[in-house]
């Protein structure tokens, strides 16, 4: 008779650890990029997380996105929707990493085209991560435990924050608001909020937070 995998099964524990790793990378990335750049190159915050590609912490950005992409590719769930979402999120994360945003202030035509691909991949990645939090993580089999219900609230909050961040990024990217708010670096802060929300959701999914008893 085949035994079902329990919560202490090595494969289950390994998969939970994988989810925690994704969450930790998401939570740490904005801080590592910003603080690392300040320590290595001097004070100042870039206008977007994507612009850190052109700083001394650029390799950290690319490496983190590639790692997240590989982790997302290993996503398993209740049905093929989880698998498809994981594959798409992997493609989008690798696209963000391999198609850097256009440099400023004078990108070449080629860099402009690549930069447009970057923003498309970034938008699709954030929307897919919101889908994970709002639609996939909240599903359950049977009656949800009290802790699961609490985790679902966390997922919904995180997914909603990601969507709000994306909407506001679009808003502050439209002139003349873009020029008037540029000194506040709103895109960097909104991207950071979305990335932190993603990281917190995955850390919760890895049962580092609100774990079932």
The portion of residues forming beta strands comes to under 5%
Helix content: 55-70%
Query: Structural class of the helix and strand makeup?
Result: mainly alpha
Euclidean distance between termini CA atoms? 27 Å
Main sheet attributes: strand count, strand direction, barrel closure? none
In round numbers, the mean pLDDT is 88
Helix segment tally: 7
From N to C, what is the helix and strand string?
HHHHHHH
Total domain modules: 1
Radius of gyration: 18 Å
Oligomer: single chain
Task: Please mark out the parts with pLDDT under 50 across 5 or more consecutive residues, or reply none.
Answer: 1-7
Strand runs, count: 0
What does the overall shape look like? elongated
Short description:
With 213 residues, the protein is mainly α.
